[in-house]
Amino acid sequence: MTVSVGQPKVNKDYHSVVAPKNQTDKTESYAMARYAVVEQPQASYGTPPEFTTLKRIASRLQAQVKQTTRLTNALHEALTCVFTELATLAPNIAADWVLMMLMKYPTAKRIAAARLSSLTKIPYLLPEKALEIQNAAKRTVSKQSSELDEELIQDLVGELQHSLSEEKRRKQLLVKAFNALPKGPHQRIATIKGIGDQTAAAIVATAISIDRFETDRKLVGYYGIFPRELQSGVDKFGRPIPPGKKVMCKQGNDLVRGLLWQCAKCASAANGGNPEVRALYLRRLEAGDTAMCAWGYCMTKLLRQVYGVWTTDTDFDPEYEARRRAARQAAQQADRIKGKAETEVSGHKDVSGSEETGKVVTNTPASMEPVSHSDDIVHDDPSAGTVQAEVAPTAARPLIDFAELRSRISMADVLTKMGYSFRVGAGQHRGKCPLHDPSVGRGKPFSVNFKREVFRCFESSCGCQGNVLDLWSAYRKLPLYESALDLAKTFNIELPDQRRSSPRKKQKKLGGHTPPTP
Ligand SMILES: [Zn+2]
């Protein structure tokens, strides 16, 4: 019999929902039992004994990182009273030279009175910067600078310096513990270009075993690294943020996130030795993302590479994906020569697997395909093959711009047409599946994301997923090409001809074929 170790945080949260106003042994045990019976949580993973030291050091390090953040914020706040302008002159207030300067000259008044020659004696403080800071200190708008303020700043600076050195020490300890682990596939992570020993150690200390993650997406999800679209707000300069601007989500393990952030910067550099991350970085910049956001995508990419080398127990190979792409292209070429692939259908299929969609291809070798992102690929229409065989490649059927057609019909339109009821205006929908026999399975397996215009059925015997076109195709039991024609006819849409525009460009612009949210 397996006994699951309860997670205190989850139990507590569940309890606060079940019995928000009482906290007795009775309500707590009821909440725990109810959680186990209703939610049926997966068995939790125990930590193998050889990993416990590493894990403990990692959590101590994480606590220290949090402490550093807290102190940095406190220093920022204290500085607004004594030297407001410093925040714009020193982007990183926790940098060594800033702390050293503040230890000696804690307020604007003291900096203004200091001799320039003694300011420039501080390591890494360049003469131009020192002059700039001193000039700002002379003109500062901050009024407060009593002796007490000075003492407070020095106190905070001292604590922050201590916290930073402690953080450094614990990072070294973490690497030591990582190197002391018994040999295993986790050691491959450090071979990825851009990921150092520290990050590899932190990832192993938090993930422990890669077997916990069925797919690379789950690993990425575990660390909570997603670009998120902003709808409102202002940036740090007070300028309104245009809607649709993307920032990185701030969830998940902040130790790993912070380390991966540095790794993404290294790996995306021209000499970073990680061509795939570099290429992704440039692609995101070209697509109009900020460097910050592009690095966010690079972090995701790095995690996928981690998944690849860890599951397959092979060293990182920077040329791996390029080779795989070439092989895929060669296979497609061969298909085309054989006349098997009909232009429009393969054109559509192409989109789902291509990188044009902004989707990242994993570093997972072909043998690992079932657990990598291949399950995200939506089209597996067995009937498509028969249609292809029936019709000659150059048949006079119109070429369909699938992306254009998709962009003109919404998921809500199609579901309404199918007579399926859902709440209008909601971003997400969960309910009965319109595509499989309702007597099979139970619950609400059918999930629709109206924002991304995708759907998915979680009933294993059904498993339908995709975009509007896939939905119509499954509903009408027609191959993709025919269902596109049928869909256009049903909604009275004049079918756009693919020949008029470059399909690839268009699909990129429209976001192409995105996989559904799990
Ligand atoms: Zn279904």
From TrEMBL:
Signal peptide per UniProt: none
Pfam families registered for this protein in UniProt: Transposase_20, Zn_ribbon_DnaG
Biased segments, Basic and acidic residues type: 335-358
UniProt organism field: Novipirellula aureliae
GO molecular function, one term: DNA binding
Protein name listed in UniProt: DNA primase
Primary enzyme class: transferase
Record lineage: Bacteria, Pseudomonadati, Planctomycetota, Planctomycetia, Pirellulales
Biased composition (Basic residues): 501-511
Domain Zinc finger CHC2-type: 403-498
Residue segments, region Disordered: 328-371, 496-518
Enzyme Commission no: 2.7.7.-
Single Gene Ontology BP annotation: DNA replication
Keywords assigned: Nucleotidyltransferase, Transferase
Domain Transposase IS116/IS110/IS902 C-terminal, first and last residues per copy: 187-281
Annotated gene: dnaG_2
